[in-house]
Amino acid sequence: MEKKFPQELKYSPEHSWVKIEGDLGIIGISEYAQKLMGEVIFVELPQTGKGLKKGDSFGIIESAKAVSDLISPLSGEIIDVNFSLADNPGIINTSVYQAGWVIKLKIKDRAEIDLLLDAQKYEKFVKEENKA
């Protein structure tokens, strides 16, 4: 069982997670987001080499319940894409913080990392959102 909000990750208000490894950001959707969506049936993936600004959509995730844009929590260039999600999008449901990553981004502006939420702030954010 994966932790609900792993401490070593950063989170965005759009329910993405980021694992920082040097100048790389590995990005996926949070456990909370995948629980809201239910069974993921399709992921539209971007191409490598694409530049993103923080807040840009880089793909689409679809379940029986909803279709949502994947929103980049950081600016940078996509250097790797998890193409296994094209054939098996359900990986996001079974391994949201491990095998369910979506893209790897070469981070352009490290200052943006400080604008992301840590696990405690993200958990509080989710609780507040559920009250609304």
Explain what you see.
The protein has one domain: OB fold (Dihydrolipoamide Acetyltransferase, E2P) (Beta Barrel). A 6-stranded antiparallel sheet has the order 1-2-3-9-8-5. A 3-stranded antiparallel sheet has the order 4-6-7. It is built from 4 helices and 9 strands. The model has no long low-confidence stretch (mean pLDDT 95). The protein is globular and about 35 Å long. Helix content is 21%, strand content 33%. It has helices at residues 31-37, 84-87, 91-94, 119-131, and strands spanning 10-11, 16-21, 24-29, 40-44, 51-52, 57-63, 67-71, 76-81, 103-107. The protein has 132 residues and is of the alpha+beta class.
Summarize the structure.
This protein is α+β, with helices and mostly antiparallel strands. It has helices at residues 31-37, 84-87, 91-94, 119-131, and strands spanning 10-11, 16-21, 24-29, 40-44, 51-52, 57-63, 67-71, 76-81, 103-107. Strands 1-2-3-9-8-5 form a six-stranded antiparallel sheet.
Trace the largest sheet across and list its strands: 1-2-3-9-8-5
Distance between the termini: 28 Å
Strand content: 25-35%
Number of discrete domains: 1
Give the CATH superfamily.
Answer: RNA polymerase II/Efflux pump adaptor protein, barrel-sandwich hybrid domain
Q: With helices defined by DSSP (H or I, 4 residues minimum), what is the helix count? A: 4
* Mean pLDDT rating: 95
Q: Main β-sheet: number of strands, strand sense, barrel status?
A: 6 strands, antiparallel
Number of strands: 9
What do we call the CATH topology?
OB fold (Dihydrolipoamide Acetyltransferase, E2P)
Instruction: Please provide the ordered H/E string of secondary-structure elements.
Output: EEEHEEEEEHHEH
The CATH architecture comes to: Beta Barrel
Radius of gyration: 14 Å
Outline: globular
Low-confidence runs of at least 5 consecutive residues: none
Structural class: alpha+beta
Helix content: 10-25%
